[in-house]
Amino acid sequence: MVLTEGAPVAEAVLPVAEFRDHLRLGRGFADVGAEDAALVGYLRAALAAIEGRTAKALLARAFTLSLPRWRWGDMQTLPIAPVSAVAELRLIDSAGAVSVADRASWRLVQDMARPRLVAVGALLPRIPTDGRVEVAFTAGFGPAWADLPVDLAQAVFLLAAQYFEFRHDSAGDGAGMPFGVSALIERWRTVRVLGGGA
């Protein structure tokens, strides 16, 4: 299984000004542009860390899941939520020829923990021998920062602030997520069973 992100979150969507206010940083100085570039990096790092811990895409964007076979013949879970739409299933044979699966043969079941594709008939479309399927979908709470649940947005700010505060500390504390961040994201975490495939 390979999950790829179509494009990173656009910088214009990131709440740099709000994060600057959160940190109580000044404005109007000559080096504000360079500082804002660093703040974007801290926000991106915090987003990635929280998405990794929760298996949630915070801001909506396109993803592609590539699979050599379905985990179950009639159902396949998607590794990240919330999924708002599946654009298509591309069936790719061993020679690289692509065909698009009939939309009438599958449907998306939206779920905050385990979104999944479900066969409309007995089985999902057949993946070619020695080939793969690519599932193109959109995941995320929405395209704007305001679409995020308040607790997840606050967790991003808290974690990004920690990255900012310890930016010169090469040793770091190695403790992982701060308690406040962990408490905020705990209810959003997906419990994995059956080796992560459920």
From TrEMBL:
<protein>
    <recommendedName>
        <fullName>Phage gp6-like head-tail connector protein</fullName>
    </recommendedName>
</protein>
<dbReference type="InterPro" id="IPR011738">
    <property type="entry name" value="Phage_CHP"/>
</dbReference>
